[in-house]
Amino acid sequence: MTDKRFYYGESYQNITFLSIMFFFMIKYLFVGTPVPERNNMEKIASFTIDHIKLKPGVYVSRKDHVGSEVITTFDLRMTSPNDEPVMNTAEMHTIEHLGATFLRNHAQYKDRVVYFGPMGCRTGFYLLLAGDLTSRDIVPLMTEMFEFIRDYNDEIPGATAHDCGNYLDQNLPMANWLANRYLEEVLKGIGDDRLIYPE
Ligand SMILES: [Zn+2]
């Protein structure tokens, strides 16, 4: 037998439930199904770059004004997007540990470093520095940093269970190799075609 109490809403809870259902029925009938908010959101600047034309390089991704200070976000693009294999997470993790350690110890730049970390698409890294900077400004810093990563052959800083969330996921030889490739193919003799985003 079917329990009729539910269908006739005899209990207090069922009346409340039916009232809520009724409210939404009326709302959707007369107001229409609500459009998810994401459809009204603007595409963020980094999604408007033509990733098909984008070559490995050093680019200014965006500039943000925080109080009186400008924060420049750099796009350190290390592989050609949608064109060649992306980097694996282990070597990106090692580059992140070494790069962050290098930057936060750098005599000239350590107080300007806001953030250094991997892109979700695994084709490069973001570097955020305080100051209104051009991509050309940081070529010497990036050359120094990637030489440090290319030549690094010691214990990876912060790669312990205490200091890191996934400390075994590291690949130093590949980090060395990728740093060398970025130096040789991108940073040495870099021109505007790899310093300014393609139109
Ligand atoms: Zn880590």
CATH topology call: Gyrase A, domain 2
Q: Write down the Rg.
A: 26 Å
What's the CATH architecture? 2-Layer Sandwich
Task: Enumerate how many helices there are, as a single number.
Answer: 5
The domain count comes to: 1
For the sheet with most strands, the description reads: 4 strands, antiparallel
Low-pLDDT runs of 5+ residues are none
Amount of beta strand: 15-25%
CATH homology-level superfamily: S-ribosylhomocysteinase (LuxS)
State the helical fraction.
25-40%
H/E element order: HHEEHEEHH
Distance between the termini: 70 Å
CATH class: Alpha Beta
Mean pLDDT: 89
Small molecules bound: zinc ion
Summing up helix and strand content along with how strands pair, one would put the structural category as: alpha+beta
Q: Your description of this structure?
A:
This protein is 35% helix and 16% strand. It is an alpha+beta fold and 199 residues long. Helix 3 crosses helix 4, helix 3 crosses helix 5 and helix 4 packs antiparallel against helix 5. The chain is globular and about 70 Å long. The chain binds zinc ion. Zinc ion (ZN) binds next to helix 3.
